[in-house]
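Fold description:
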Amino acid sequence: MNIIDNTTITNNRFEVKITDQLHEYINEDFFYVVEDTNIENIPKEILLIPFIVNIAPIVWLSGMTFSIREMDNNLYHSLNSLKQHLCSLYPDIRFNGEIVVEETINIKYDLQKSKFIQLFSGGVDSVFTLLQNKDSELSLLTVRGSDTALNDNVGWGNIKNMAKKYTTNKQNLKNYFIESNFKVFLNTKKIKKEFKRDWWTATQFGVGTSSFMSILSFLEGSSIGYLGSSGFPKNKEGFSQYGEVPDIDNDALNWGKFRTEYHGVNFSRHDKVEYIHSTMINTYNRILPLRVFYSTDGAKNCSVCSKCYMTMVALLVSGDDYINYGFNISHTEFIRKIKSDFKNLKYELISPVSLDFRLDTQKRIKDRNNYKELNFSNEMIDFLMWYKEFDLPRYYTKFKKKEAKKRFFRNIEKKITSIFKGY
């Protein structure tokens, strides 16, 4: 049976009505909107790429077989490679569903080697990639529907305003904004029950978001799409939980002669922060905001979580003031709060990779005199010297033990609740 019942294109909106046979895994039909851009002249085989990339792993998980009329030959082989990677990453899961392609085709359209696309969130990775390629003809793609809810209009407005600041007065840079239900159209409760993990972070995040570059590749004739990497270690274990191991995304997102490429793989997160610190002011004659925390209404940095802390500390260590980059908390309150979180095991260190990020920053802390010359306050210098000596590996071990205990008692509570539901 065909996985698609029908499709609709209206000006800048594309919709896919999905077969009812997949209803257990789907909340609603799939759509996306390309803001301020008519897409009616884009070939349907290109318009369908975001849907295909986001639905294919669901089909594999379901164990069912569906057909699709046609698919680009390179995309077809890339999806097969993605399937093999997922089987390798998650050997306890049977990805035995299949999409049968009735005809493979070769998508052809004019591409220019000098034009590029970049996913742009305003975070450290994406800003670093932009600054490294600031002299290229670059289209910045920001996608709504992943970290910013479709009903958070204030947050989306803030994100668009932030992204536009990076292209203002830059003739070679332009913004594109796409809105889609590509995350919420899936029945995540059903999927998590079978997959035993969070689907978004483990599988969909990287490939799902990047699939929308297909639209820009046609509109702009871009030949390469950059994805800001998180600084991958040689041993990729620890990154699989985010569904963004380079091998996966590089293989999954090739179509026609377009290819995706992870940028900055050989740079650590702290390397990137230092580069932003040293390059931003020369590029824009001012400091523009970073957006490193995504889960609050309004899409602004919360400034009090471990992810914000990580970037704030890295900026301080580099000799900069985090307040300049959009973190809204006083120095005194920041120091009090981060020390309190460490003391009470509330500072989240969830993986060996997250520990490595912080150890890398910790070892870059210079001596007291260096920060005095930068006119840091004694209060902030004292904090940096304290952080320099803090035993992060020991803290990580204690935090993991606490989290293991929480999971243990949570599982017991679930079992007890399940038993009494039967009475």
